[in-house]
């Protein structure tokens, strides 16, 4: 891979990062707060590629050869190959072309956000807490999946009381023929994503399918089941309203 090819790879990688970070596609892979760093990284790669191309393609004066004994100019690099004998030239190893693999992935077959397939193979993730602030005003009050599940499991629903709460997530099959509402939680990126699961009780509409995004309204229920993956407790919510919603732009919670 010569310098010009390296510059093209830099442009493609940087352009793919910029495209993902400016179109919202990045939300499938990292948390929203990382967008400025992605934009900056993509811009640096693009600028590096542009300057490398400019440096390689700019006009250069012909090199002055050294005169040999008969008075003729001699190119000190003539007769030398760019290959160093290890399968690559002075411009870099051929394996560097593999850098194009993530670019092709982002541009042609961009992976979607993690959903029920990943959630079904990971145990519900809860963080033990002992102190819960009072619920904010509103009826119903909108809570994150983690907030509701933590209050239901570690506070036994005391801080929830009889308040109506509203949750949103994707549907998936759960243990004991139950339906679950789930959402992936990320600390940094999709690599550390873990699901939070809440079982749906009460009357549910027919025709539910996995990956459908739902907004449910209901109250705390003392019922619980165990996650078959890691044995974690999955609390129920007694559902009074279920609404099908479009897939949100930000599918992860953090």
From TrEMBL:
Chain segments annotated as transmembrane: 35-55, 95-114
Alphabetized InterPro entries for the sequence: DUF1980 (IPR015402), DUF1980_C (IPR048447), UPF0703_membrane_permease (IPR052955)
Domain DUF1980: 162-252
Protein's UniProt keywords contain Transferase: no
Membrane found in the keyword field: yes
Region of interest: Disordered: 64-86
Keyword set, alphabetical order: Membrane, Transmembrane, Transmembrane helix
Protein name: TIGR03943 family protein
Origin species: Dactylosporangium fulvum
């Amino acid at each position: 891979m010569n310098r010009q090819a390296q510059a093209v790879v830099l442009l493609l990688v940087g352009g793919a990062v910029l495209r993902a970070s400016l179109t919202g596609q990045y939300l499938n892979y990292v948390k929203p707060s990382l967008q400025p760093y992605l934009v900056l990284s993509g811009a640096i790669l693009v600028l590096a590629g542009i300057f490398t191309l400019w440096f390689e393609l700019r006009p250069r004066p012909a090199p002055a050869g050294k005169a040999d004994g008969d008075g003729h100019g001699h190119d000190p690099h003539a007769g030398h190959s760019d290959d160093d004998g290890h399968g690559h030239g002075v411009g870099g190893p051929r394996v560097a072309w593999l850098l194009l693999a993530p670019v092709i992935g982002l541009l042609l077959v961009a992976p979607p956000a993690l959903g029920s397939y990943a959630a079904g193979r990971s145990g519900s993730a809860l963080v033990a807490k002992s102190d819960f602030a009072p619920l904010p005003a509103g009826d119903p009050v909108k809570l994150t999946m983690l907030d509701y599940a933590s209050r239901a499991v570690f506070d036994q629903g005391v801080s929830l009381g009889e308040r109506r709460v509203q949750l949103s997530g994707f549907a998936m099959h759960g243990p004991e023929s139950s339906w679950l509402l789930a959402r992936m939680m990320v600390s940094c990126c999709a690599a550390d994503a873990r699901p939070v699961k809440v079982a749906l009780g009460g009357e549910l509409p027919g025709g539910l399918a996995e990956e459908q995004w739902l907004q449910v309204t209901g109250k705390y229920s003392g019922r619980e089941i165990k996650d078959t993956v890691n044995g974690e407790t999955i609390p129920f919510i007694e559902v009074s309203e279920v609404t099908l919603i479009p897939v949100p732009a930000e599918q992860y919670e953090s």
